[in-house]
Amino acid sequence: MPRWFIDERGTLRGGWKALGFLLPLASLGFLASLGLQAAGLRTGAWAGAGVGALASYLCVRLEGRTFGSLGFLPGRRWLLEFLAGTLGGILLILLMALMVKGLGGFHWERTPGVGIPQLLTAAAILLGVAFHEEIIARGYPFQRVVEGAGPWVGQLVFATLFALAHWGNPGMAGATRIWATLNIGLAAILLGFCYLRTRSLALPIGVHLGWNWAQGSLLGFGVSGTTDIKGAWTPVFHGRPEWLTGGAFGLEASLPCAIICGGAIVALWWWKGTAPEPSAGASTASGS
């Protein structure tokens, strides 16, 4: 086979493995959709998470690796990283919101009828969203591109794809599209570093969950243009520019998001991480 298909170890290059992942992902997604429709059920975040997990499992088993090698190793460390990531995601959103509020962008009003049960239900849904998106965007395809082409190629490719995947969201137009594309790309790099510094999906899943939950369910902002879940508080905007507040799209379309994300990326850049030693045949690049 030509060298651009096969690497120096005689195995298929990582980029082709990442593309190959789309075949079981699409096939299983189609079958799951048919099955759920036949049962009178709706597809949802957890269904997508299950499809992504099964597609990932099939791909790693074909390579003779375990599902845990993708960053799913249950135990105390995994749980602690997940909890730390969740708290970190909440903190990032709080910092953005407080920055916008301090600049006179909005004030909060308590939302009637939203309490602990609603917040927990939203957390369960958003955990499925985080699992689904991270197992695809920082899971098998991302990891194989990182192994084959290095961390920065993986980061830039998947940050671009992650941002473009949100272009169909409500409100993606004009200046909002520019700011949201930039910030969602930065968020993807941040989440990529969370994986690279730990070689586990616990931290990025936690950050993703905390980010979405705090932004929408707790503080009432749009989440990447979606507003399906009412927040415990509702922001009342003061007519400031949308590049400052993010407007209906959410904080991800604001300048403060770029500042906070940029600072978090720099912190992760300098952090040495807790990643175990790479296994034989894996890339030793850590993203620095």
In short:
This protein has a domain at 74-270.
Molecular structure report:
The chain is mainly alpha-helical and 288 residues long. It has a domain at 74-270. Helices cover 61% and strands 3% of the residues. It has helices at residues 14-20, 22-38, 45-62, 76-102, 116-137, 140-149, 151-164, 174-196, 202-218, 242-245, 255-270; strands at residues 106-110, 233-237. Strands 1-2 form a two-stranded antiparallel sheet. Helix 1 runs antiparallel to helix 6, helix 6 packs antiparallel against helix 7 and helix 7 runs antiparallel to helix 8. It starts with 13 loop residues before the first helix and ends in an 18-residue tail after the last helix.
Describe the structure using short key phrases.
288 residues; mainly alpha; 2 strands; 3% strand; disordered C terminus
Largest sheet: 2 strands, antiparallel
Q: So how many helices?
A: 11
Q: In terms of structural class, how would the helical and strand content be classed?
A: mainly alpha
Quaternary? single chain
Question: Which regions are unreliable across 5 or more consecutive residues at pLDDT < 50?
Answer: 279-288
Query: How far is the first residue's CA from the last residue's CA?
Result: 33 Å
Overall pLDDT level = 91
Order of helices and strands: HHHHEHHHHHEHH
- Strand order, sheet with most strands: 1-2
